[in-house]
Amino acid sequence: MGPPSKAKAPLNEAEIMLKIVCALMSRPESEPFLRPLDWKRLGLHDYPTIVKKPMDLGTVKKNIEKGKYKSKI
Predict the structure, then answer these.
(1) Is the full-model pTM beyond 0.85?
(2) Please, which of 6, 15, 44, 53 could form a disulfide with 11 given CB 3.0 to 4.6 Å?
(3) Is 27 exposed, middle or buried (0-12, 13-18, 19+ CB in 10 A)?
């Protein structure tokens, strides 16, 4: 009998979500979605009234890392 194997523990939901978000963020076409939109600089003054809950991939990643999402649903 050889040495015990060092099997990796299965990934939890947060780790899976983080892998997915990081994979999305690494794609060149995700560039416009990596950080919050600077709507003031762009002169989009009605943006906050139209987009009630703005979200970007960078914020999603931080929220996953901080455990702010209860589940993947």
Answers:
(1) no
(2) 15
(3) exposed
Q: Cβ distance 25 to 58 under 8 Å?
A: yes
How many Cα atoms sit within 13 Å of 3 on the Cβ side?
3
Give the list of residues 6+ apart from residue 13 with CB closer than 8 angstroms, or none: 71, 72
Amino acid, res. 20 = I
CA distances from 1 to 5, 6, 7, 8, 43 (A): 11, 15, 16, 20, 69
